[in-house]
Write a structure and sequence with these properties.
Strand order of the largest sheet: 2-13-12-1-11-9-10
Largest sheet: 7 strands, mixed
Radius of gyration: 20 Å
Number of helices: 10
Mean pLDDT: 91
Number of domains: 2
Helix content: 25-40%
Order of helices and strands: EHEHHEEEHEEHHEEHEHEHEEH
Structural class: alpha/beta
Strand content: 15-25%
Shape: globular
Low-confidence stretches: none
Distance between the termini: 32 Å
């Protein structure tokens, strides 16, 4: 039987004042039957690496691993900052998804503007790589997991934090009247009005496990690491069932982002699609024992569910917001 480890990268329990979210009956059933714990990892990427038998320092060299070549690297992820009453927030709808032509337009324009300062922007497997002229030290944060949060609390800090914050301000000013921003707004797409610097940290990571499980992920860092090991890595499938049918007796790893659901107009609609395409099939696969174990990482928690757990009928099913809160 197949064993599945699935990380939902941007899943969060809503806070006070957030938009209403739908009930997710299949997820609630999994939460009622399985066992929750707080894993001792720094985030979902560390959890995925642990599932694959690898350990890594807290400060993952995300950018250097994606780049795979010499240089001083960070990521400059396009984001949309929304003005609140007192602070800027990262758009609750998630990160803007740029098409390859938009990525090329942004990189070419950036390099004309900032190239004389020793900065260079390029896109690798969808990730916005920023080559810096010199090494730097700062604590930074992945913007994907910060959707809806106040941006100022998560800006770069540490020895070179002020330098990176100044750069981010310059990028915002440059993007304010950029044609790409206007074009996306006219189409109703999430505009890009900032580049969020993060992901620095030492030399590229190398695989430390002799055999990596099959990976389905849109994350450029994980895909680059799997390629270094000559291991199988594909994009996240749109639904669980067709992908699961290709496996037998394997350990499969997958990552899934709520903001990556292509045909969802709102956050609530994306949750409903993940419920139908992933959580409900997980319940079915555990029910017919085609999955021997499911490990979920979501909202900073690990949930482990096995086929025999379905007999725990005495456990009261609660709203997922309550069960994870």
């Amino acid at each position: 039987m197949t064993r599945l480890s699935l990380a939902i990268t941007d899943f969060a329990v809503p806070g006070d004042g957030d938009a209403p979210v739908p009930r997710l009956p299949s997820l609630e059933r999994l939460l009622a039957r399985g066992e929750q714990s707080l894993p001792s990892v720094a985030g979902w990427r560390h959890w995925v690496l642990a599932q694959a038998g690898m350990q890594a320092d807290r400060n993952l060299p995300v950018a250097a691993t994606i780049a795979g070549r010499p240089g001083h690297w960070a990521l400059a992820t396009p984001v949309h900052l929304v003005a609140g009453l007192e602070h800027l927030h990262i758009d609750p709808a998630g990160l803007p998804a740029l098409s390859p032509p938009e990525q090329q337009v942004l990189a070419d324009s950036f390099n004309r503007m900032f190239g004389p300062d020793g900065l260079e922007l390029s896109f690798e497997d969808g990730a916005a790589l920023l080559r810096m002229p010199a090494p730097f030290m700062a604590a930074t944060h992945d913007p994907e997991v910060l959707a809806g949060r106040e941006a100022g609390a998560w800006l770069p800090s540490g020895p070179d934090g002020a330098k990176l914050r100044k750069l981010m301000t310059e990028f915002q000013m440059w993007l304010h009247d950029h044609p790409l921003t206007a074009a996306r707004e006219s189409r109703g797409d999430i505009p890009v009005n900032a580049l969020w610097i993060w992901g620095e940290g030492g030399e590229a990571l190398s695989p430390t496990s002799p055999a990596l499980p099959r990976l389905a992920s849109g994350d450029a860092f994980l895909r680059a690491l799997w390629r270094r090991a000559d291991a199988e890595a594909a994009g996240t499938p749109p639904a669980l069932e067709p992908w699961l049918e290709t496996m037998s007796g394997e350990h499969a790893l997958a990552t899934l982002g709520i903001g990556q659901v292509d045909d969802a107009g709102t956050h609530a609609e994306a949750l409903e699609r993940i419920e139908a395409r992933w959580f409900a099939p997980l319940v079915d696969a555990l029910g017919d024992a085609s999955l021997s174990e499911v490990r979920l990482f979501l909202a900073g928690r690990e949930l482990v569910v096995r086929p025999q757990d379905r007999i725990r009928f005495w456990r009261r099913r609660r709203a997922w917001t309550e069960a994870l809160g």
